[in-house]
Amino acid sequence: MEPIAVIILNWNGAKLLREFLPSVVANTPRDIARVIVADNGSTDDSLEVLEREFPDVEVLKFDHNYGFAGGYNRAIEATRYRYTLLLNSDVSTPEGWLRPLYDWAVAHPDMGAAMPKIRSYRHPEQFEYAGAAGGFLDCHGYPYCRGRIFNNVETDHGQYDDPCEVFWATGAAMLVDTEAYLQAGGLDEAFFAHMEEIDLCWRLKLAGRHNYVVPASVVYHLGGASLDASNPYKTYLNFRNNLLMLHKNLPASMRRGFLFRRRLLDTLAWGRYVATLKWRHAAAVVRAHRDYARMSRAYNTDPRENMLAGAPNILPKLLGL
Fold it and tell me: How far is residue 137's CA from residue 317's CA, in Å, rounded to a whole number?
C-alpha cells in the first residue's frame, strides 16, 4: 500500500472537482500516494461527476455533512495510511508538489504535521491567505503567517523559501502523521470548521511533535470556497473557535486572565463592526462568546505548558498602529 492518502473532502463541490481534481490526479505520484475523495453527503451531482469523469479515484461516501473536522476524522479512521494529506477541494497541485513533503516526513520522524507553501490560485505571484508560508500564534492567540498578517498578503519573492518549524500548518494542504493525528484525538468536531487545524497542531506540539513548512513544495489555493469572509457565519466560527482553542490548550493557571483580556479585545472588534454598520457580524461576535461559554464546559483537561509564552505581539498591526 502507498504510504500517503491524499484525501479531498467534498461537499456539493462538483464544479471545484472538475476544475481542481485533474491536477491532483495527474501530479500525485502513484508510487507514494493514493488520491481519495471523501464526500460529505453532497446533494449536487458530485458523485455522478466522480463516477463518470474520475473513475480511478477512490470515493468514500458519507450520509450527511459532518463538517471539515468530522468529515476528515471519519475518512482518516476509514483509511489509516502511514501519512494522510488533507487537501482542500479548491487546491491546484503542480508537478512535483508532493515528494518534498514525503521526503521531509521520512527524514523527520518527530513530525506531527507539515505543509507546503501556499500561493494564490488567482494571483500566483502572491501568497494565499490560508497558510501562506507557515502559521504562528501571537501572544494574544491571534493566528498569522509568514507572508500574511491579517488581510495583508505579500508577494512571494522567495523570502520564505527556508523550511522551518511553525506553530500550525494550514488545513488547506496539511500532511499529518496518521498515528499522531489519531493519538491527538483528530480534529475537534465541535469546531465544525475554521481553526480546527490550529487546535490540532497545538495539541500535536503539546504531545512532543513538531510542525513544519516545506517551501520546496508549492500548491495554489483558490480560497473562500466554503465560506466567504463577508459571511457572518464565518465571523461567528472564527471568534468562537479561537476562544475554544485557547480554553483547551492554555494552562488552567493562566486561562482566566488570558481569556478576560481576549474578551476585551473582542469587544473592540465588536465595536468596529457596530461603527461600520456591520450589524450581522457584530451579532456573530456576541453569539460566539455566548456559545463559547456553554461549549467550554465540555473540556476538563488542561496542559501544563504555556506555548504562547514569548510569542510576538501583532496586535498593533491589527489596530493599524
Answer: 14
174's grid cell: 496539511
The identity of residue 154, as a single letter, is: E
The Cβ of residue 155 has, within 10 Å, a number of other Cβ atoms equal to 12
State whether the Cα torsion 78-204-27-12 is positive or negative.
positive
pTM above the 0.90 mark? yes
The whole-angstrom separation of Cα 120 and Cα 126 is 6
Q: What is the pLDDT of residues 222-261, one digit of tens each?
A: 987 556 678 999 999 999 999 999 999 999 989 999 999 9
The pLDDT tens digits of the residues spanning 82-94 come to 999 999 999 999 9
* Helix or strand holding residue 249 (H, E): helix 232-249
Structural contact between residues 200 and 113, judged by C-beta atoms closer than 8 angstroms: yes
Residues whose CB is less than 8 angstroms from the CB of residue 2 and which lie 6 or more positions away in sequence, other chains included: 30, 31, 32, 33, 34, 81
Which residues are paired to 168 by β-bridges?
135
- CA-based nearest residue to 116, from 137, 88, 144: 88
Cβ-contact 225, 89 below 8 angstroms: yes
For residues 42 and 314, what is the distance between their CA atoms, to the nearest angstrom? 39
Collapsing DSSP states into helix, strand and coil, what is residue 207? coil
Radius of gyration for the alpha carbons in the chain, expressed in angstroms and rounded: 19
